[in-house]
Amino acid sequence: MGTPEFAVPSLDKLFNAGFEITAVVTAPDKPAGRGMQLTQSAIKKYGLKKDFIAELQSLKADVFVVVAFRMLPEIVWNMPPLGTINLHASLLPQYRGAAPINWVIINGEKETGLTTFKLQHEIDTGNILLQQKMPISDDENAGSLHDRMMNAGGDLLLKTLKELEDGKLQEFQQNDIKIYTENSLKHAPKIFTETCEIDWNKSTDEIYNLIRGLSPYPAAFTFLERKKLKIFAADKEKTDKIIEPGKTFTDHKSFLKFATIDGFISVKEIQLEGKKKMNTGDFLRGWRG
Question: Which of 8, 15, 26 is nearest to 150 (CA)?
């Protein structure tokens, strides 16, 4: 069960390893554009749900595998005799939630990882099966980390199912991990527009991490001459000088940078509202601001 690209390598590796895939479940296609959203009557929703549950039961699958999918009701995840296994892009119990890849970079973490676990009622709280640690480099963004985790996740999931098949898999509760307390846990909530707007009154490191944690999508942004400016890549520099946060500096040829409370963010790849994405040099050649 899965929907986005992140789920594809997991399915591919299971298929190529010879596991019998009895079914693949994904979200329905969504109409695009304003006013094209489809709605269903209550009766249709009820009927489709009943048919879906009956069809799942008829498959008699040993285990369900969920990667980057939606929340499932208990009647679904509790159906197979070996339970439902989920792949999550963090070292649980840290970074439970919808956007762990973004938040580990936004928070400046040096390490993250992957977890396979059993689904239960509360989101991302089920018993842990296997974990794999992964380093995060100082210049890595969410896109590159996503791609590394996408492929490594498929390998970890394959290892999990092989150990389950061989009877070697042991699960343990997340509460048994003594190095964490509820107060020390960090979360990974959904990214909203207000998350993406840069506050130049923050430190250079915080802003730099926000930019790479939201790149390439949905992208951190600020405003330049009242137009939204998305920033996809940047360099950082520190200074002891007191400069007005958000103030811009440019030679109109090669650099455009914004002041923070303790330095500068020099933007490298940007997109001004109504324009295409480009490097800073190309942008400055056509900008008369």
Answer: 8
